[in-house]
Amino acid sequence: MKLIVTDREGQVHTLEGREDWSAMEVIRDANLPLAAECGGACACATCHVYVDDEWLAKLPEQQQQEIEMLDFGVAVQENSRLSCQIKMTDELDGLKVTLAPESL
Amino acid sequence: MTTNVAPAGGQHKTDVVIIGAGPIALFAVFELGLLDLKAHLVDILDRAGGQCAELYPEKPIYDIPGIVEVTGQGLTDRLMDQIKPFGPTFHFSQMAESLEKAGDGWRVTTDAGTQIEARVVVIAAGGGSFTPKKPPIPGIEAYENESVFYAVRKMDRFRDKVVVIAGGGDSALDWTLNLQPIAKKLLLVHHRDGFRASPDSVNKMRALVADRKMEFHIASIKALHGANQKLEGLTLSNKERGDYRVDAEMLLPFFGLTMKLGPVANFGIGLHENLIPVDTEKFETSTKSIFAIGDINTYPGKLKLILSGFHEGALMAQQAFRYCRPDEKLRFQYTTSSSSLQKKLGVA
């Protein structure tokens, strides 16, 4: 399954996703610049991505924990998600996300 | 012995100064203590525990050997208990700002003016210093310390000003309630009509909005307007209204903390991708008698695990002893069988 990531310079990377991995883990494994400070505990909001509109509705619903953690994200938009909370599945083959800007 | 918290600004001499007070720094105090080495710890947070205290105090950890399950705060509390016999001194809410040679050893100076001289320096700074997140709004840095603040030090600065607070956590809500009575006008800006804050604060804020004593905008901040560091207005944006402008003289963004390497980068120890390379025998950096343990170091096969950091601290302590007590013979002992170690631990 593919995960298509646009980095902060606008460059597009097609990554090989793995069943059961989070999108955050796939992005980090490819050495793209994603802080993910808490390591996937949904406790820091530094794995923040924007999800392409066409994919937004296909994602599993956000848990309350993620909604609340996004209160500590910078530059949060309607399509903001924490990539540590997106589990890769066959249904998400081809998922497109953009790395959100980081804290200055 | 007890754990000491030193007031800012003092001058101290000790065997080892540890930069950081997370779990790895705390256990290093234990390993150093068994060898009769005294330690001072400097941390930017106002309490011990590092990431365990700041990022996941309530989250369970399952991979500490011998402990089936413990929270970040629980592990911190246990380590603090464990090192109590060694009387460490903590310097909280301070950032280690500079490191320079002082005689045989080193002098660490903090941003609060505290100076600590020690033969050995141990950098156990994890992912770096926890510092406030800065929202990436174009040009925001030009307004910092004049119109944009990430913390409130003097409330008076905000008196009779048009104050905008951004964020949805407890800090955003608490400062909304604290500053509303003295501000000329107060606006809270958050991206959703929900908060990760105490329900009591949220209710109080909503009551103020209902009484027209402040405004709450569900929006994001698009742009800052002003000149010469003085903020005059903001462009906010949301679905209903599109882009719109509001007056603002002060902006307080509260989005929690993030880890920045900070001044450690200027300590003159060769960094590799923001990590400090060390050997795996002593966990010493390329500079003699400066060590790096825990998440901040790198070596072939490094795993960022708490248990790895504990091991690194134990080996570091052996070499630290050789620097601090060059004329003494290092005696390797077990806590189970050594009555002298048990005496140090206060159990014999």
Notes on the protein architecture:
The complex is a heterodimer of chains A (104) and B (348). By secondary structure, chain A is α+β, with helices and mostly antiparallel strands. Chain A has one domain: Roll (Ubiquitin-like (UB roll)), CATH 3.10.20. Chain A is built from three helices and five strands. In chain A, strands 2-1-5-3-4 form a five-stranded mixed beta sheet. With 348 residues, chain B is α/β, with parallel strands linked by helices. In chain B, 22% of the residues lie in helices and 29% in strands. In chain B, β11, α4 and β12 form a beta-alpha-beta unit. At the A-B interface, α3 of A face loops of B.
Could you name the key traits of this structure?
heterodimer, A: 104 residues, alpha+beta, five-stranded mixed β-sheet, 3 helices, B: 348 residues, alpha/beta, FAD/NAD(P)-binding domain, 2 domains, eight-stranded mixed β-sheet, four-stranded parallel β-sheet, 7 helices, elongated
Estimate what percentage of residues of chain A fall within beta strands.
Answer: 15-25%
The SS-based structural class of chain B is alpha/beta
Global Rg of chain B: 24 Å
User: In total, how many domains does the architecture of chain A comprise?
Assistant: 1
- Overall pLDDT confidence of chain B: 96
Helix coverage percent of residues of chain A? 10-25%
Q: What distance lies between the first and last C-alpha atoms of chain A, to the nearest angstrom?
A: 33 Å
Mean of pLDDT of chain A: 95
SS field, number of helical segments of chain A = 3
Q: What coarse outline of chain A follows from CA principal-axis ratios? A: globular
Spatial shape of chain B = elongated
What is the CATH class name of the largest domain in chain B? Alpha Beta
CATH architecture of chain A: Roll
Oligomer state of the chains in this structure: heterodimer
Question: Biggest β-sheet of chain B, characterized?
Answer: 8 strands, mixed
Query: Architecture of the largest domain in chain B, CATH level 2?
Result: 3-Layer(bba) Sandwich
Strand order of the largest sheet of chain A: 2-1-5-3-4
